[in-house]
Structure formats: structure tokens, C-alpha cells
Amino acid sequence: MIRFECDYLEGAHPRILKRLEETNFEQTPGYGTDPYCACAREKIKELCGGADVDVHFLVGGTQTNFTVISAVLRPHQGVLAASTGHINVHETGAVEAVGHKVLALPSEDGKIRARQIQKAYEDHWNDSEHEHVVQPGMVYISQPTENGTLYSKEELQALHEVCRELSLPLFMDGARLGYGLMSEANDLTLEDIAGLTDVFYIGGTKVGALFGEAVVISNPLYKRDFRYLIKQHGGMFAKGRLLGLQFETLFTDGVYFEIAKYADELAMRLREGFVKKGYRLLFDSYTNQQFPILPNEHVEKLKEKYSFAFWEAVGESHSAVRFCTSWATKEEAVEELLRDIEAL
User: Fold this and answer.
1) What are the φ/ψ torsions at residue 196 (nearest 5 degrees)?
2) Predicted pLDDT at 95
3) Overall average pLDDT of the 151-159 stretch
4) In a 10 Å sphere around its CB, with 0-12 CB exposed, 13-18 middle and 19+ buried, how is residue 315 labelled?
5) Which residues pair with 56 in a beta bridge?
6) Mean per-residue pLDDT for 145-173?
């Protein structure tokens, strides 16, 4: 079986495994206070343009999302997000489990717009009984979105401006951020993101690391006591140096960006093959996730040899599916898939 269903099927980049072996018997302080975490923090700050940011390392995306969101919100507040957002559909109610409602906004492409945030905010405060309703307290977006689409710099600036106007913190989920940054359609840098969000994170789990996400906090209001909240939510990893060392390695010699670009390039070859075959695409994705709409008989034929994700039914005879490339996808696997698609 050749697998394309997600981007965390493999272990870790060989350079990370090599560094883990080389440093295995070193003794370092725990809980992220080691030299490797310190070095990784400095590398990330440099990529953020030397911004005055705090950097913390957690193990996984869901843990990161509910830790950040619960750190920012007061008990009566909820988080505005696209209806397709990861915290709304694929985290088993983790945000709700820590006491905060996800306030879902309709979205066809995975993105939300500044005007939607403005309307949701105004609708709440114009309600004569608003104190009986969960108050919008922050905004959650992801880059790329669950649908592989990207926010442009102009769109992120518009979100930033409306959030500032309404005093709503803006949080970006960057579980696949590398694939977004290296997309041919992207016009954002890490420095831009650090300046236009209050908190974001750089995903490692899906981009070359064994595990790990790097939380970057720009807004001073949310820096204080964040380590207490990491601990309280079970995220303070005793062997924290394993997280720091991975990010130090990924951000040495441009490894993170190189491997993300590689995955995107393979995805673009798949996109071209789907379009050439005459398949429509459910979303206009220029990242490592591609969503072709296939006749159901073609889906069944491909399932004999390939593993990929069902996304949604499109009429009675077609299905939208997701093929996902990663930093470790083999070129020959993509070429074989393209030949089999052409032969259908």
C-alpha cells in the first residue's frame, strides 16, 4: 500500500535522528530550560525579524490549540473560527472540554474574512441579552487551512486590523505552516506573521520532526504565566531538550523550508496530473494537500493500491478525496500514482 492520506506517516528527518543519537547521553536541564531549546528559540526569533517574542515548545497540535486558547480566553468567552477549522471538526471537542465554545463561522474555502468577524462581534453586542450568550473572545485561523488554501498578506492584514479594532486576539494554527510558507502562491513570511498575529505556532510534527510545535507569542498580554498553563494542561515535557533539538536542527541550513518546498512541489505535480486527467478540484490548493473530485469507480480502483482520505460526496456518482504529500514522500510514489491516474 502506497500511502497519501496525511503528512505525518513517517518518523523524522535523518538529520534529527542523527542529532538525537549524537546527543543521547548528554545531561541537560529539563522542561525546556536546556541549551538546545534556547538555541532553537533564538533561531525562531531571528526568522521573525528579531521581534520581541516568546517561544515555547509543546508536543502536538491539539495540545497546543487548547492550551493557547484557554490561556487567552476568560471563562465566559468563546473562539471564532471557520466551520471547517481543526478545533471545530477534528479535535474531539478539546477546546470545549477546557470550558470554551467554538463559535463557528461559515466558510466554503476554509478561510474566514474580516467582515465575518466584524458581523459576529456586532451581532453579539447588539443582542439585548448578550450576557446570556457566549462572548466572542478571540479569533482562530490556520495557515494553510484544513482545505489547503492560504491567507494572503492582504487578507491577514485585514484580519489583524479588525481584531485590533475589536480587541480580539488573533491566533494562527501553523501545524502545516512550512507547506504554506513554501507554496508558490504564498506572499507571507514568518516576520509578517509575527507582526500580524498575537500568537501563532510553527508545526514540526507534520514537517520533519518526530513530534513538536513551537508556539510564538507576540502580544505581551499573553506571555506572562504561559509556562504555568503549559504545565497545568499536561504539556510541559520533562525531556524538553528533545523538542528544542528538533527545531534547532530544522532551522539550521534551511532544512525546514527545503523539505516543505519539496512536498509542495510533489503536490503540484499531482495537481497537474489530476487536472490533465479532467478531474475538477474541490479547493484551489497550492499546498501539500490536493482535493480532486473523482468518479466513485475510480476511487475504488485507486484504493486497491493507494491509501488516501475521503473528504465529501459530490453528487451521487463522485467523491472529493484528499491526497497529501509530505517532506518524506518518495518521488517514485508520485510518479507511479500519476501513471495509474492517467490509465484510469
Assistant:
1) -110, 0
2) 96
3) 98
4) exposed
5) 215
6) 98
Using a 10 angstrom Cβ sphere, with 0-12 exposed, 13-18 middle and 19 or more buried, the burial of residue 127 is exposed
- Residue 73, C-beta contacts closer than 8 angstroms, at least 6 positions apart: 79, 100, 137, 138
Residue labelled with grid coordinates 484504493: 303
Q: Quick one: pLDDT band at residue 51, thresholds 50, 70, 90?
A: confident
All three cell numbers of 307, joined, read 491509501
DSSP 196-253: H-SEEEEE-TTTTSSS-EEEEE-SGGGTTTHHHHHHHTT---TTTHHHHHHHHHHTST
Q: Is 159 in contact with 199 (CB distance < 8 Å)? A: no
Helix axes 241-250, 35-47, angle to 10 degrees: 40
> Rounded to an integer, what distance in angstroms lies between the CA atom of residue 29 and that of residue 316?
58
Contact 171, 198 (CB under 8 A): yes
Query: What is the length of the chain?
Result: 344
As a dihedral over the C-alpha atoms of residue 239, residue 245, residue 247, residue 248, rounded to 10 degrees, the angle is 150
